[in-house]
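Here is the promised in-class demo. Please do not try to memorize the tokens; focus on the logic of going from shape to residues.
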């Protein structure tokens, strides 16, 4: 009699660091183009993409990093939560990555699967790939929303 046994060995997710860093480098270059001209805390730039308006705001600055928030302000669908991302830009390494999304806690590099929140094993990579796609769309197809100030002679 032959007894077959099934050994369930869950493989741990191992991220490709070169692939991830390349993605973050591309995000950095594109995020720079969307930053406000003055990179002081509180400064923001509005970007219109299709029927949606987004605010790119400088939340924090340090010698080697800048934290920006990307918030959807208009054009969201009633049944879908508006976009909210916190992106950290590392100026010494020239990379940018999402550190928070939808007001959640810090994103782990990888998750066990299944997990209570049903995060994917490579959730962090997927979120940064989404950021890349969003940044490309904004840089190639977006428009800056200009707020004209007629009282100060700008028009």
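The designed amino acids, position by position:
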């Amino acid at each position: 009699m032959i007894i077959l046994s099934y050994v369930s060995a869950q493989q741990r997710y191992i991220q490709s660091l070169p692939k991830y860093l390349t993605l973050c480098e591309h995000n950095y270059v594109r995020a720079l183009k969307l930053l406000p001209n003055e990179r002081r805390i509180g400064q923001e730039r509005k970007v219109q993409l299709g029927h949606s308006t987004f605010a790119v705001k400088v939340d924090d600055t340090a010698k080697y990093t800048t934290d920006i928030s990307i918030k959807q302000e208009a054009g969201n669908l009633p049944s879908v939560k508006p976009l909210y991302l916190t992106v950290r830009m590392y100026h010494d390494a020239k990379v940018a990555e999402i550190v928070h999304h939808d007001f959640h806690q810090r994103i782990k590099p990888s998750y066990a699967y299944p997990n209570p929140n049903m995060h994917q094993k490579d959730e962090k990579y997927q979120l940064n790939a989404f950021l890349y796609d969003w940044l490309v769309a904004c840089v190639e197809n977006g428009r800056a929303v200009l707020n004209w100030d007629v009282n100060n002679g700008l028009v």
